[in-house]
Amino acid sequence: MDNNYWVRRQSRRRFLGSAAGVSAAAVAFATTGCGDDDDDDSSSGSPTAAGATTAASVTAGPTKAATPAAKSGGTARFVSSNATYDTFDHSRSRFSPVATIVGLTMQRVLQWDSFANGTLGGAFAESWEQPDAQTVKLKLRPNNFFHNKSPVNGRQTKAEDIKFHIERNKSGKLLDGTDDPNFYRKGEYQVVESVSVPDASTVLVKLAKPSPLFLNLLAQSYEGIGAPEAIQQFEKSYANFNQEMIIGSGPFVLTEFSSEGRLKFKKYDKSSRPVNLDGVQYVPLFTDTAAQQAAWEQKQIDGYGPSTIQVLEELRSRFKGKVTERTGFSANPIICGSYNGGAAPWNNENLIGAYFRAVDRRQLVQQFHGGRGAISGSIPPSQGAFALTEKELITFPGYLQDRDKDISDARKMWEAGGGPALGDVTIDVPDIFEGSYQASAILTAMLNKNLGTSQFKAKIEPYSTITSKIVQKKYGSGNANLWYGWDTEVLDPEPTAFLVSNYTSTSSLNQQFEVKVPGLDELLGKVAVELSPDKRKEMTKDVERMLLKAYGAGRPYSHVQITNTLYWNYYKPAESAPFSTAHLLANAWIDPDDPTYQGRAS
Amino acid sequence: MGAYAIRRALINIPVIWLIVTLVFFATNVLPGDFVARRIAQQNPAGGVDAAAQIAQIKRELGTDKPVLERYVRYLADTLRGDLGESYRTRDSAFAEFSRGVPYTLQLSLMTLAVALLTSVPIGIISALRQDSPADYGLRLLAILGVAAPNFWVGTVLLLLVVRFDLWTIDLVNHPLVWEHPLRSVQLFILPALAGGFASGAGIMRLTRSQMLEVLRQDYIRTAWSKGLRERVVVVRHAMKNAMIPVVTVIGLTVAGVLSGNVVFEYLFNIPGVGNRVLTAINERDVPVVQAFVLIIATFVLFVNLAIDLLYGWLDPRIRIP
To answer: To pair with B37 at 20 to 30 A between CA atoms, which of A198, A515, B9, B179?
Structure first.
C-alpha cells in the first residue's frame, strides 16, 4: 500500500507517520496564486485554463519530467508579494508574509511534504503515532538545532518546545497572563486536553474528542516552533520587526529584514533536511508592473506573473523555449458577497436564488481576468479533491451552461420574491477590488440586464467597512444588501475545518449568515469527527451540494482567478500551492549550466 | 534686505501651522483606518471578531482618543520635533523620511540638471536664431516635452532599454551614485531624462520668449551699436534681465520635480520619499503621511522663500514695502 498520509489515516487505526511519504495522488492541488504566501509560486497541477467556462477539478499531480539532479548553490530572488507585517510573533499573526518567514526559518511540528499528493511528513517532530483516536504521540527529531541567535544560541531542540507552543496557543494568553484576541488559532487548539513530555524526546497530546484535523493544524502556515526563551525575551517587542527575533530550526536563517519587503535568508548549515539554495532574497514589491517585467527580463528576479493576458502571450512568444510557465489558482476565491439570511428581505429563497442565478460567473471571469479563472462552488477548485467536479457543478442553478435558462428562472424568482419592490439594491465593492477590476460598473450592468431591472447600484467601500458590516450583520437587509469581492484566503488543503466553523448553525461565525439548511448541521457534525479522509472527501462534496441547493447559504461563491507565472529555465521551482509553501523552497534549485543562466544579474 | 527677508520668513509660520492642521485633519478623515484596514485585508469575509482586535490595537497606538486630544498632542509633539512613529514599522516617521531622502535628492538633482542644462541654452539659441530651421526644430521639441506625459516617456524609455538590451537597469538594488556610480546613473538617468525633458520644456519656452523680448529693448540695440561682442551682449546684458521670470519658474519647477518624482519613483521602483509616501497613504500609516507632507511642504515653502529673496536681489523694487 502506498505510504500516503491520507491512505494511512484511512486504513489503520494505529499508524505511524514518517517523513518519507510518497504519492498516491489521493489529493491533488494546484498551484499558485496572487495571494500565495511566497513568490516562488510554482505549481504541480495544471488547471484547465481554457477560459471562463472551465472550472474546478484540478486533478493532475506533479509532472515528473526527466529533470537533472538538483544542484547546490545560488540565491533565488523573488518579489515580496505583499510586504505588510503585523507582528513577528507568528502565533499572533494572520499575515501571509509572516507565514513565508515561518516556512523558511522554522519547522512546524509536522509539515506538508507535498500538497499535490497530500503527503504530511515529520518536521520538528520526526514522526508521530496515534495510539487511539484521542491521543497523538510525537517523537522529536534528533540532532535538530535552533539557529545560532541570542538568547537561544543554537541549542538543541527539546520536547518541551512543542509543549510550550501548544499550551501557549491553547491559552491565548501572553506570558504576563493577559488575554490576547490575536492568538488566532486558539479556537482550534481547544481540542487539546493536555500535553505532557513523558521523556526527553516524546510529546504526548491528549485530545478532548477525536479530531481528524489536529495533525493538519500542526502543519499549518503559522505553526512554526520557536524557543520559549526567545518568546520570553521578545514577546513585548515582536512588533518592532528585527531579524534577530526570528529564531527557528528551519532550512534558512533570516539575516536581513526591512519592513518594506527586503529580506535575505541564508542557508542554515545545520538544517536537518537537505537545502539546495545558498540563500533566498525577497525584494520590495514593484510598484509598477512594467518595472517588474523589466527586472525579470533582465534576470534580476527569477519569476514574473504578468497581470494581463496580452503581456503573458507576448512574453510566451518572445521567450519560447527559455521559460517555464506555471499555472495555478489564486489563494483568495472571489465571492458574491455574504449576507445575513436571518431577516427580511434576504431570507426569501426566491430573492436569494434570483441573485445567485443572475450572477454570470463565466462573464465575470472573462471581464475581470481575461478568461483566466475558474467558476467556483462553495468549495473552491484549489481544494479540488474535496470539491464537486466541474461536470457536476454545471448542473446546479447559477452554473448552468444554458445561461438563458438561468436568467429566465432568475427573473421569475425576482418577481416572485418581490424584488421590484425592494427599490435600490446596493452592492458594496471593496476599494482595492474596484481598483483592480473596475468591478462596480460590470456587476451592476450584469445584474440589471439579467434581472431586467435598474435597481442594482454599486458603492465603493474600504474592506474594513465591509468587514465591519459583515460582523454587524448589515448585509441582507435594508439598502446595504450585498457585497462582492475577495474572500478570505484558503489556508489548508482540506476545507473541512472551514466548513464546520462557518456553516454549523451553532458556531459563532455562522451567526453572521444565519441561513438554515435542513440536515446540514448533522452532516457537518459527522464530517468533523470522521477519521477517514476518503469518506471526508465524499462528505464535503455532500456538504457542497447542500450549500449550492441553498444558493450558497449566505456565502455565494463566484469564481477563482488563475495566475500564470513565468520562470527562466535555470530556476527549478519547488512545488507550491495556494497555501503556505515556503518550507518547500529548500527543494528548489538553480542550474548554472542551463543556457538561460547566461546574463543572470549577480 | 534683512528686514524683507525676516518679513517673508515670518509669513511662513502661520502657513506651516495651517499645513500641519490641514494634514492632521485630512489624514484623520480618510476612509478606513490603519488597523481596521490591516485586519480586514486578511479577513475580508469577517471570519474573526475583528472588533475586539481593532479596539485593542487602537488602544496601543493611541488612536482611540478623541480627535481634538490627538490634534493637541500632535501639535505639541511637532513643536518638540517629534513627528511620531510609523504604525507599520514602529520606527520614527522622520527616520522613514530620511531613508527616502538620498534617492529623491539624487533623482531631483539629476532631473533639475537635465532640465536646466538643456532648457536654458536651447531657449537662448532658439531666441537668437529666431524663425530659423533650428528654432522651429527646438520649439517642436519643447512642445513635445510639454505635451507628452512624463510617465509615458519614462515607461517607453525603460521598455526600450530593456527590449534592446542596451544596459542593465538595476531595478532591484537601486544603488545610489556614491555606492555604485555607473549602475546608479544607468538607473536614474531614465527618470531624470523623462522628468527633465518635461520640466525643461516649459523653461525653454519661457527663456526663449523672455530673451526675444529683452533682445528688442533699446539698451540691447545700444549695446550692439557700441560694437560689443555677441557673447557680452547676450550674457551680460540680455540674459540677466531675461532670467528674472525664469528664476521664478525654476523655483516652481523644484516643487514640480518633487511631485513628478512620486510618479518616477513609482515607475522605476526607486524607494524615495514619493514612493514611501504613496505606500504610507495606501496603508493609512497616518504619522508617516503627516510627517512627509509636513516636511515636503516646509521645504517647498523655504525654496519659495529663497526664490523670493533672490528675486528681491535681482529686482530691488520688490524689496520696497
So the answer is: A515
**pLDDT band per the 50, 70, 90 thresholds, residue A258:** confident
Say if the Cβ atoms of B36 and A301 lie within 8 Å: no
Instruction: Give dist(CA A51, CA A282) in Å, integer.
Output: 32
Between A458 and B82, whose confidence is greater?
A458
To the nearest whole Å, the CA of A373 is away from the closest chain B CA by: 20
Distance of alpha carbon A231 from alpha carbon A472, whole angstroms: 35
Residues of chain A contacting B169 with CB distance shorter than 8 Å: 294, 298
Contact between A552 and A74 (Cβ < 8 Å):
no
| Angstrom distance (rounded) from CA A583 to CA A250 | 8
- Cα gap B72→B77, rounded to integer Å: 9
Optimal mutation site among A188, A315, A463, interface B, most CBs of chain B within 10 A: A463
Contact indicator for B165, B146 with CB cutoff of 8 Å: no
**Superfamily the domain B98-319 falls into:** MetI-like (1.10.3720.10)
- The nearest CA of chain A is from the CA of B97 a distance in Å of 13
- B275 contact residues in A (CB cutoff 8 A): 287
pLDDT in tens, A174-230: 999 988 878 888 888 999 999 999 999 999 999 998 888 899 899 998 999 999 999
Domain extents in chain A:
5-30+82-284
| H/E segment holding residue B103 | helix B93-128
Contacts of B88 in chain A (CB under 8 A): 84-85, 259
Structure-model confidence comparison of residues A159 and A470, the more confident one: A159
Position B39 scores a pLDDT of: 64
Q: Please tell me whether the overall predicted TM-score, pTM, comes out greater than 0.80 for this model.
A: no
Q: Which residues of A touch B50 (CB under 8 A)?
A: 467-468, 471
What's at A388, amino acid-wise?
Answer: L
According to the model, what pLDDT value does residue A32 have?
Answer: 27
Interface probe, candidates B30, B35, B42, chain A, greatest A C-beta count within 10 A:
B42
Q: What DSSP string describes A393-439?
A: HTTSTTS-S-HHHHHHHHHHHHHHTTGGGG--EEEEEEHHHHHHH-H
Question: Which residues 97-136 of A have a C-beta within 8 angstroms of B?
Answer: none
pLDDT the model gives residue A28: 26
What ranges in A106-237 are assigned the alpha helix state H?
Answer: 159-171, 186-189, 214-218, 228-234
pLDDT in tens, A3-26: 333 333 333 322 333 322 222 222
| B46, B162, B172 member nearest A301 (Cβ) | B172
Q: Please give the interface size between A and B, counted as residue pairs whose CB atoms are below 8 Å apart.
A: 144
Beta partners for residue A264, in sequence order: A256, A281
Helix (H, G, I), strand (E, B) or coil at A275: coil
Between chains, do B162 and A297 touch, taking CB under 8 Å as contact?
A: yes
What would the pLDDT profile of B160-199 be if each residue is shown by its tens digit?
A: 999 998 999 998 888 999 999 999 999 999 999 999 888 8
Phi, psi at A263, each rounded to 5°: -130, 140
Contacts of B32 in chain A (CB under 8 A): 431, 462-465
Query: Is A19 an interface residue toward B (CB < 8 Å)?
Result: no
A458-480 confidence digits (pLDDT tens): 999 877 778 778 877 888 876 55
User: Crossing angle of helices B240-267/B181-215, nearest 10°?
Assistant: 150
- Please state the ipTM of this predicted complex: 0.75
Question: What pLDDT, in 10s, does the model give residues A76-118?
Answer: 999 887 667 888 999 988 788 898 999 999 999 999 888 777 7
Looking at residue B237, the DSSP 8-state letter turns out to be I
The structural architecture, per CATH, of the domain A5-30+82-284 is 3-Layer(aba) Sandwich (3.40)
B45–A470 CB contact, under 8 Å? yes
> Does A291 contact B269 at a Cβ distance shorter than 8 Å?
yes
